[in-house]
Specification:
313 residues, alpha+beta, OB fold (Dihydrolipoamide Acetyltransferase, E2P), seven-stranded antiparallel β-sheet, five-stranded mixed beta barrel, 7 helices, 35% strand, globular
């Protein structure tokens, strides 16, 4: 039976490295991913993108992989080096059915109970990030991921209602400032704050930040095209279809003479624009078998790349 992977799964190698899966399709027997954690003395340690790249260059160059399909150097783990596959749905159910081991686990259970009381079906959800591999610390966030588009949109509405009723708390301006500093995106804080507040996919439970994301198991049709990069560009266009704005990658179809869509591979720009809005995009243009697109998030930090709404009238 072939292996099946989804973005936000984690995979573990014999060297004690934990990679986050970034694309569902394997390429030449490799799982396309990003190194996120290293196990040392029995404990997981989170790595920045720079630390991860340095570690692989120095000690594990076999996990660095040039993707012909995406024309980019990625982290690619051969399926033969897979020691453990951490799957968000199975992990969430295990955590919900077990006694809380720490404050993060307890807050997750409380959040789940409040969502279930409002008839959210958590069989369609999973947990990713630190809780997925048991690397959580006292300050860890809760990262819930939905595998059902209707459930995800329902949960966003629930968050809006629960904040209004005081069941959960909205992020404060200070919380958003902390998130902005951690994210390090190419937007001003005011721009970041304006875009984020309207997404309705984040909140606080007992003062702990949580967020909701979506993985659609039938991604948009052009995702398997072979692309070649054509250089950086800044453009403006109207969004004609934002139904996939919360997907991975987030996809925005554009009314533009040469660029058919924008694909965002970094979480900052998920849900960033709505249908009908005019946006400014800075990114890498790629030509593929289905036409040209512009990419935001060619690296995890996406330096010099952004998508922002300039008119929503």
């Amino acid at each position: 039976m072939p292996f099946s992977f989804q973005p936000k799964d984690f995979i573990e190698t014999p060297e004690g490295l934990a990679f986050a899966v970034v694309l569902s399709a394997c390429e030449q027997g490799r799982i396309l991913s990003q190194l996120r954690y290293r196990r040392e003395h029995g404990q997981w340690h989170k790595l920045t993108s720079e630390q991860a790249d340095q570690l692989l260059r120095a000690y594990h160059p076999n996990y660095r992989y040039y993707s012909v399909t995406h024309d980019v150097l990625l982290h690619g783990v051969p399926v033969t080096r897979l020691q453990r596959h951490h799957q968000p749905r199975a992990r969430l159910q295990a955590l919900l059915q077990s006694a809380a081991r720490d404050a993060v686990h307890e807050d997750l259970k409380q959040l789940a109970q409040r969502l279930q009381r409002r008839e959210l079906d958590l069989r369609h959800w999973g947990i990713t990030g630190s809780l997925l591999i048991g690397a959580q610390q006292a300050s860890s966030d809760i990262d819930l991921v939905s595998y059902d588009r209707r459930q995800f949109q329902h949960a966003r509405q629930l968050l809006h209602d629960m904040i209004a009723n005081g069941e959960i708390t909205a992020l404060s301006a200070q919380d958003w400032q902390v998130a902005y500093q951690r994210r390090g995106c190419d937007l001003t804080f005011d721009e970041y704050y304006w875009h984020e507040r309207r997404k309705a996919n984040k909140g606080l439970i007992n003062g702990r930040k949580f967020d909701l994301s979506l993985i659609d198991e039938s991604p948009y049709a052009n995702s398997q095209s072979v692309y070649r990069k054509q250089g950086r560009r800044v453009l403006r266009a109207r969004v004609t279809d934002a139904r996939f704005a919360y997907d991975h990658p987030a996809v925005y179809y554009l009314d533009h003479p040469t660029i058919m869509l924008c694909a965002c591979y970094t979480a900052t720009y998920v849900g960033q624009a709505e249908t009908g809005e005019i946006v400014e995009i800075a990114g890498l243009v790629e030509h593929g078998t289905h036409g040209a697109r512009i990419i935001v998030g060619s690296s995890r930090e996406a330096r010099g790349e952004y998508l922002r709404v300039i008119s929503n009238a």
